[in-house]
Design goal:
8 helices, 411 residues, Immunoglobulin-like, eight-stranded mixed sheet, alpha/beta, four-stranded antiparallel sheet
């Protein structure tokens, strides 16, 4: 999702030299992010990243554990946020696989975080133990919590810099239920994409109210480990890269497509075998590690699959680190230039913040998802308000001549 967050827009207007410094790619020399250059990892436990209301109406403090390479002195580091498995009913941030993957990736140089999120949903009673509407709502609550965690780190990067995270390089990942959440954070960007029976407005919208409002929850990539989504069409042209690992014999979360949960309306989902081909079809960078004849989350109990999954994530992420301003902001054909857009999705207007040399850009076209020009605009200042006007809900691309398109959305 090509979104840039508000505080960077303010920095750009107030101090262009600071914003341009953000364009530098991550330093991957010396084997960093590829081999375990750090012998030890420091874990900060029980970090509060927000608070949200559970399905029973009670308040829950949202906690996470943060893993950092011990002795690391790099000032801007990529961050990977992981969410555990458990069908939105079980599991904790301290599950063995979360500890394992967060530790292994932190030894490469990443900052990693394992989050706890709101669990639970109404049960319909034996033998039908899941309610499909409740399950879908639990998935949305989990997504909201992960978005709150992203905003927590953006807030920290803009203020105290306690964790020295480079906010252009925040990646969402998860296993099983956690992967549902990560996929939604990365690709569910319009309220209209959420089934009406979920009641998204009553749940707090896409962002939720978990904490740190005013910061973007956009991520630079998605790590989908045995997950699925409501529709492969969530993935659209211009979205962030996707890495999937999935067993082809998964009987819990289908590799291709199928039903999860019970009750009506049915919760029909699409797994990695449908999501990655969709990503390829719309031009989204992606990797699919197909675990032949493997069942559900085999990497959590089998060391060989765990190694394969780790290597797949490592090899997928490292090339992305060499991209200046990875996919969160459109990169200009002119070095040091980029265009920022916030908020997106928006209700009434999107603010476009142009580079200091904005006058060189000329006229822009606003395209709908079919590529049809629906509006033209000629900037008269560095900051431009793109009013929604007659534009319907959906995704649009703002395209200046010679520049990569900037993806925006209206709710």
């Amino acid at each position: 999702m090509k979104i840039i967050f508000l505080f960077l827009a303010v920095l750009l207007l107030a101090a262009p030299h600071v914003a341009q410094a953000q364009l530098a790619p991550i330093d991957t020399t010396g084997g960093r992010y590829y081999r375990p250059v750090f012998a030890n990892v420091t874990v900060t436990s029980d970090v509060v990243y927000g608070s949200a209301t559970t399905y029973t109406g009670t308040a829950q403090q949202l906690l996470m554990d943060i893993y950092q390479p011990t002795g690391d002195t790099v000032k801007r580091r990529p961050l990977l946020i992981f969410a555990h498995q458990g069908g939105f009913a079980l599991g904790t941030r301290k599950d063995a696989y979360m500890v394992n993957i967060c530790t292994r990736l932190a030894r490469l140089g990443y900052v990693t975080a394992s989050i706890e999120y709101r669990l639970g949903f109404p049960l319909t009673g034996f033998p039908v133990l899941t309610d499909t509407v409740g399950l879908a709502q639990a998935s949305i609550r989990g997504m909201q919590d992960m978005r709150a965690a992203v905003r927590f780190f953006r807030n920290d990067a803009a203020t105290t810099k306690t964790y020295r995270v480079y906010s252009n390089y925040i990646v969402a990942g998860g296993s099983s239920a956690g992967a549902f959440m990560a996929l939604q954070v990365g690709y569910l960007d319009k309220v209209s994409e959420v089934p009406a029976y979920v009641g998204i407005a009553a749940l707090g919208g896409l962002e939720g109210t978990g904490g740190n409002p005013g910061y973007s929850s956009a991520v630079a990539a998605v790590l989908n480990l045995s997950g699925a989504t409501e529709s492969p069409n969530y993935i659209e042209a211009g979205n962030v890269p996707l890495c999937s690992v999935h067993g082809t014999a998964d009987a819990t979360v289908p590799y291709f497509q199928g039903r999860v949960g019970a009750g009506l309306p049915p919760k029909y989902v699409y797994g990695s075998g449908r999501l990655n081909p969709r990503a390829t079809a719309v031009g989204v960078t992606n990797t699919l590690r197909r675990l032949s004849k493997a069942g559900h989350i085999p990497f959590e109990s089998n060391s060989a699959y765990a190694d394969t999954t780790f290597w797949t994530i490592r090899d997928f992420l490292r090339p992305l680190l060499r991209r200046a301003g990875t996919v969160l902001a459109a990169q200009s054909a002119v070095p040091g230039m980029r265009i920022q857009a916030y908020p997106t999705p928006a209700l009434g207007a999107v603010q476009l913040v142009l580079p200091a040399t904005w006058a060189q850009l000329g006229e822009a076209e606003v395209l709908d998802v079919t590529g049809r020009v629906v509006r033209r605009l000629t900037p008269a200042a560095q900051q431009v308000e793109l009013a929604r006007g007659a534009l319907g809900a959906g995704v649009y691309l703002v395209k200046f001549q010679g520049q990569p398109p900037v993806r925006i959305a209206f709710e």
